[in-house]
Amino acid sequence: MIIYIVQTFKYNQMKKLLLFSLMLITLSATSQIEKIQGIWESDASEYLTAVFYKNGSFTFSNIGKSKLEETVVDQGKDFIVTNCLNKNNGHKVSIRYTLLDNGNMHAVFKGDWNGIVIHERYNE
């Protein structure tokens, strides 16, 4: 009987430890992707890209001479994928954003334009 109680206690402790570890990993991954929030600029674009995070979802806004619609279509622990439409010229692209180790944002464009753009945090 004592052995059964000890085994049950150890099993319950292991379950709690595993659950705590999973929660910690999830929080860490979420906070990592949240670092993408802010205003970004790139030498390759005349637009500033503003990224906002609220209530578990991201919003992208492009600041420039014409209106661009950018919609989040997927997100993971270390990436965000958006679809972007430029109504002035009809160009559509899918953009996969990730953060680089140096703090810059890496954007891979696929669609009417294919390429890679590195963004840096905007400093006025």
Description of the molecule:
The chain is an alpha+beta fold. The chain has one domain (35-121): Lipocalin (Beta Barrel), CATH 2.40.128.520. It is 27% helix and 45% strand. Strands 3-2-1-8-7-6-5-4 form an 8-stranded antiparallel beta sheet, with no helix packed on it. A hairpin with a 4-residue loop joins strand 4 (68-75) and strand 5. The longest helix has 33 residues, at 2-34. The model is unreliable at 18-30 (pLDDT under 50).
Please specify the SSE layout and strand pairing.
Layout: H1 2-34, E1 38-41, E2 48-54, E3 57-63, E4 68-75, E5 80-86, E6 91-99, E7 105-111, E8 115-121
Antiparallel strand pairs: 1-2, 1-8, 2-3, 4-5, 5-6, 6-7, 7-8
Mean pLDDT: 81
**Major beta sheet summary:** 8 strands, antiparallel
Strand content: over 45%
The CATH topology name reads: Lipocalin
As an assembly, this protein is single chain
CATH architecture: Beta Barrel
Whole-number count of domains: 1
Quick structural overview:
By secondary structure, the protein is of the alpha+beta class. It has one domain (35-121): Lipocalin (Beta Barrel).
